[in-house]
Amino acid sequence: MQLGMIGLGRMGGNMTIRLERAGHDVRTYDPVVDSTAGSLEELRDQLEAPRAFWMMVPSGKITEDTFRTLLRVAERGDTIVDGGNSNFRDSQRRYAEAAEHGLSFVDCGTSGGIWGLNNGYCLMTGGDDEAVGRLEPVFTALAPEGGYAHVGASGAGHFVKMVHNGIEYGLMQAYGEGFEVMARSEFDLDLHEIAGIWRYGSVVRSWLLELLHDAFEAEGGRLEKIEGYVEDSGEGRWTIAEAIAEDVPVPVITAAPFARFASRQEYSFAAKVTAALRNQFGGHAVKEVQG
After folding, report:
1. What pLDDT score was predicted for residue 73?
2. pLDDT tens digits, one per residue of 262-271
């Protein structure tokens, strides 16, 4: 199947490679990376109708600007996919605007980080049955077996991914707090070793714990080189806002972003753990201790 991939960063670049390995014909556009096309207009001309454009760019202004250009460039019958971390309300709006231009719009929550190239990406799609069904060969090529679902109507894909990331915030914060308790204890504990044994048979074993073990191995058991400063990309805040609107108590998810805010003001070993985990699964930059 043909696909136009827009954005060749950590995710888009690896997704392109994975699709090509599966036999798909992927044409690309990224203004700062070698691509098959030098513009979105040229990308359009490299694809056969009905076309599929996949936006894999940062959420916010860049996504909105790219979408606006595609509304002008794409032709009736084409499909736009947003695989980034857009707010689901924006995706619902873009779906409606695309329909006015005779275009289909699919929102695709994408999880897998820098490991997705080999392990596959968990994909949560929202949109019309026809548009999603037409792109299913692409979704199944990107996802591992059992890792893809059409979860609902327009906006549902990004809504589910939003909640997924809210849960992720809570899980990382719990690991961070637990390891800080051990780091500050009276015992001389080998945190690298403990993270290692918890991977086998423990009820708290998980992929995140495996990544934490890798981080301790790479950075030392006390994460000496990593500053306890943790960014947030917005999904945790959006999850909390929706929970408030739905009268759903989410105390753990709510506490996690506030802990990240605190990490930007004072020392916290828990924040070091969270920063190290974000670097391990998503390739997010960490601040290194100076001096």
Report:
1. 98
2. 788 766 788 8
The first and second tokens of residue 179, run together, are 């390891």
**225 part of the active site:** no
Distance CA 115, CA 74 (A): 32
Model pLDDT for residues 138-172, shown as the tens digit of each residue: 999 999 999 999 999 999 999 999 999 999 999 99
pLDDT in tens, 114-129: 899 999 999 999 999 9
The Cα–Cα gap between 27 and 44 comes to: 9
Name the catalytic one among 42, 136, 161, 225: 161
Residue 1 token pair:
């199947």
Dihedral of the CA atoms 177, 178, 179, 181 (nearest 10)? 90
The C-alpha atoms of residue 233 and residue 162 are separated, in whole angstroms, by 10
Long-range pairs of 135-139 with CB within 8 A, sequence gap ≥ 24: 135/1, 135/52, 135/79, 135/81, 135/106, 137/1, 137/24, 138/1, 138/3, 138/19, 138/24, 138/52, 138/54, 139/108
CA atoms within 13 A on the CB side of 113: 15
Q: Are 39 and 68 in contact (CB under 8 A)?
A: no
180 is catalytic: no
* Average of per-residue pLDDT values in the chain: 94
Identified catalytic residue from 100, 168, 210, 246: 168
Q: Which pTM does this prediction carry?
A: 0.89
